[in-house]
Specification:
The complex is a heterodimer of chains A (390) and B (201). Chain A has 390 residues and is mostly beta strands. Chain A is 14% helix and 43% strand. Classes of the chains: A mainly beta (390), B alpha+beta (201).
């Protein structure tokens, strides 16, 4: 019996080692101690009572896309009570410990904004980064052209950033500033521009021969990565956020595209081809040799976005249709999440905004729980290419 | 008993071998993307601030920008030139899905454009506009459209056309030639168009 037991134990150890066959598995083991992003995590159940109207609508929207779901007070983990008459008052208690997480009366701005603030106070009490008062930028089709818009992350308070009646693309926030960079064809060739959203003032970041596309501003707001073809190939360049001090990072006849930064600013991840096969790579932001980031299990990865906590890269896989996927930042097994394209991470490193081509609108996905909510469409044209301000 | 002990040892030995061979995948270094160059400000020029005016009102603009050392012309130089979209219309080059290679059967069109352009003695330029079908993601398609235009530019240069007179623009999938969601439409959209530019009279 003893020998059989030790034999089985040895077999179990071998089995465990077999599981640890990929870098992805190693990353899985690390990450599961925080968020179980690859399985389907149960939502946190809460009950809502007393709000009604717009306050309830905001609370439900905000919390659902951050991985909460709603049930009655007997089954909830957190009881959210209050009123939305005039100004919002709200209280959150833990049904088990009886602790009060939030107890507050709000005033000022609007009822919606107060409700967003209350939702934020709740998630912050759970040591999470709030998103209730964050913004997105995106593209809206207008006839045969399009315009850049910004809005609250839930699609409200949308405002046009451009009114040029030309082609625009790829809006990208400048971290730390109320400003965006984007591509516009206003001057004829596609160029990259930086616009201060408070004043409307804008300046040229990159306007050269060829096409200057796909701006990605660094997390410290000081640099911008771009794809420029002025030297004859579509290559990756980095410059100051206003386009100065340009440095060419790749020199390759393959088409580099859609760069994004690691949150520590050390790496730029981008899509390219190796021997006709579409892959994701990363290169040191100051220049050097590019390395492949494997995305095993899916084909044709593109449009990557690196999570603010540094752990994941979300991207679009183009297979039979477009799928939002995530892969550990070091590469490995990719996980398919939901049909869609062009994901952008929220500051909380769990919610993604993306585009659903079939309905021409944006959607929000809470990656751990897989809960999805559509963003109301802004104007009648197709909404696409979202960028979440972080 | 002895057999079980041996089996035990074998399993442990196998496990140790697997551990020794390593679970971790090293990132695969690329060999066909060479070390990036540093570009000094003198080489690549700067994106000059231009009077785009208020983003909301969209006033008229003048554009400037630097060209690269081996690269394309300043697009501002031809901004007010007259485009002729008809003259090379029948030479529009079509591409295979997800490809920027100029197919053999298309090369005669490039040759025709090259010969006509070289024979022309008055000032002129060519703008090559690259396009994609709808089936790619936005930024991938914008780069692919550019890659197609660049492939045609290289082909023209190889045939003796002055590269300083050839400008490329990508429209991604924004300007399809044919509406429709099947290969009949898609094949018409995966294209590079040659536009002749001449200075205003």
């Amino acid at each position: 019996m003893k020998s059989l037991k030790s034999f089985l134990a040895a077999l179990a150890a071998l089995a465990a080692l077999l599981v640890c066959g990929t870098a992805a598995a190693q990353n899985e083991i690390e990450v599961q101690s925080t968020i179980n992003i690859l399985g389907r995590t149960q939502p946190i159940w809460v009950s809502l009572s007393g709000f009604g109207g717009e306050a309830e609508q905001v609370l439900k929207f905000d919390l659902y896309v951050q991985g909460f779901n709603f049930t009655n007070a007997d089954n909830a983990q957190y009881l959210i009570t209050g009123s939305g008459d005039g100004n919002l008052q709200g209280r959150v208690t833990d049904r088990f410990s009886k602790n009060t997480l939030v107890s507050k009366a709000y005033s000022g701005a609007s009822l919606r904004r107060q409700a967003h603030a209350f939702a934020d106070d709740f998630v912050e009490a759970l040591n999470r980064k709030p998103i209730g008062r964050t913004k997105i930028a995106f593209k809206v089709q207008a006839g045969r052209n399009n315009e850049i818009y910004v809005a609250d992350f839930d699609g409200r308070n949308a405002q046009a950033v451009t009114r040029d009646d030309t082609l625009v693309a790829a809006p990208c926030w400048v971290p730390g500033r109320f400003a965006v960079e984007y591509v516009s064809y206003k001057l004829g060739s596609p160029g990259i521009f930086l616009q201060d959203l408070s004043t409307g003032a804008r300046k040229t970041v990159a306007y050269y021969g060829g096409s200057s596309i796909s701006p990605a501003v660094s997390p410290d707001g000081r640099k911008v990565a771009m794809i420029l073809s002025k030297d004859g190939w579509t290559d990756l360049y980095v410059g100051d956020v206003d386009g100065g001090n340009l440095k060419r990072l790749t020199k390759s006849p393959e088409d580099e595209s859609s760069p994004c930064w690691s949150p520590d600013g050390q790496w730029i991840c981008f899509a390219t081809k190796i021997k006709e096969r579409r892959v994701l790579c990363k290169i040191p932001a100051t220049g050097g040799t590019a390395q492949r980031i494997p995305t095993d299990g899916v084909r044709s990865p593109t449009e990557p976005d690196w999570s603010p906590d540094g752990k994941w890269i979300a991207f679009t896989a183009q297979m039979a249709d477009f799928q939002i996927c995530v892969v550990p930042a070091a590469g490995g097994d990719a996980t398919v999440l939901v049909a869609g394209e062009d994901p952008s991470w929220a500051p909380n490193s769990r919610t993604l905004v993306f585009n659903r081509r079939s309905v021409g609108r944006l959607s929000l996905l809470d990656v751990p729980t897989k809960q999805v909510k559509d963003v109301p469409r802004v104007s009648s044209g197709i909404n696409s290419q979202p960028s979440w301000a972080r | 008993m002895k057999v079980t002990k041996l089996a035990n040892l074998l399993v442990i030995a196998l496990a140790l071998t697997m551990a020794a061979s390593g679970c971790k995948k090293k990132p695969t270094p690329l060999i066909n993307i060479p070390r990036g160059q540093t570009g000094g400000p003198a080489d690549v020029g700067q994106g000059n601030p231009v009077g785009l005016g208020n983003g909301a009102t969209g006033e008229g603009v003048t554009g400037t920008g630097g060209g690269g050392p081996v690269g394309q012309m300043n697009p501002a130089d031809v901004e007010h030139w007259t485009p002729n979209t008809e003259i090379f219309k029948s030479d529009t080059v079509y591409f295979a899905f997800d490809s920027a290679s100029v197919k053999t059967m298309e090369k005669a069109k490039v040759a025709a454009v090259a010969e006509a352009f070289k024979a022309n003695v008055s000032p002129a330029a060519i703008r090559i506009e690259g396009h994609c079908d709808e089936r790619g993601t936005e930024e991938y398609n914008r780069a692919l459209g550019e890659r197609r235009a660049l492939a045609l530019r290289e082909a023209l240069i190889d045939l003796g056309v002055d590269g300083a007179k050839v400008l490329t623009v990508s429209f991604g999938k924004d300007r399809p030639a044919a509406d429709g969601h099947d290969e009949s439409a898609w094949s018409k959209n995966r294209r590079g168009e040659f536009i002749l530019l001449t200075p205003p009279k």
